[in-house]
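[INFO] parsing input record for ABC transporter ATP-binding protein
[DEBUG] input buffer:
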Amino acid sequence: MAHGERLGAMAEVSRGEPALSRREAESGRREAGLSQGEPVLEARSLYRFFRAGDEETLALQGVSLSLSAGEFVAVSGPSGSGKSTLLACLAGLDDPDGGTVRILGERLSHRPEPERARLRSRRIGVLMQTGNLLAHLTLAQHIVLCRRLAGRPQRRRSSVKELLASVGLADHEHAYPGRLSGGEAARAGLAVALANDPAVLLADEPTGELDTATELQILALLEERRSRGRAVLVASHSPAVTAAAGRVLKLRDGKAI
Ligand SMILES: Nc1ncnc2c1ncn2[C@@H]1O[C@H](COP(=O)(O)OP(=O)(O)OP(=O)(O)O)[C@@H](O)[C@H]1O
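[DEBUG] output buffer:
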């Protein structure tokens, strides 16, 4: 069984629901307004330098990539190779010193922060290793807040529950992050990143602190996103992540190798 199929089967077991049929996957893509293979995120010749006194770090040196609907790509490379810097530029959390990032054809880089934030909130989900949740908000409040910030009209109240159920947290609508286990917090962070059903999910070491079983659960959920025609990019040191991805972008010293 191919790794993707194994992850799909795991998702099925973990949620007690059948794996997606081809028709369901196609309908997911249509809902998102994406066609299979359509370029969703494009980065051209990204450069990022950091200066501290006389020291200059060349964190990214001309990295290009294209991520399409229905793709799961891993970014791997040794510590300091530029993975987090790349993800931050792709998410519009940081601005590259050179090169461009486009999301669904619209330029994200070199725009004022409020415009980048607007595009990010509507089209990109961001998942980090930790720090995805605010201590004083329940999981339902996180999701409602993300939708409001994206200017989305409130959907049915049940849609919050459905989203939480999709990551196995149906009964945690009113839970605060402090009450969650590490695995639950990781899945809750994923639900929040998916609150606006983004075309692209960018995840930076999302499984770094998780045990193997929880890592596989998260990977199964990412694979399900991919199979629904969304794009997924994960920066990670984990061999399980690179094995789950359809393609791996390797970085060394800020360059794609
Ligand atoms: N804000 C910053 N100021 C100065 N240097 C930075 C900054 N952010 C990153 N760097 C440097 O840029 C290089 C790339 O860092 P980055 O965090 O992107 O690597 P990474 O591959 O994600 O590493 P890790 O796997 O350890 O998270 C490193 O040399 C790092 O020290």
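[INFO] Residues 3-36+70-92+122-256 form a domain with the Rossmann fold fold (CATH 3.40.50.300).
[INFO] shutting down worker
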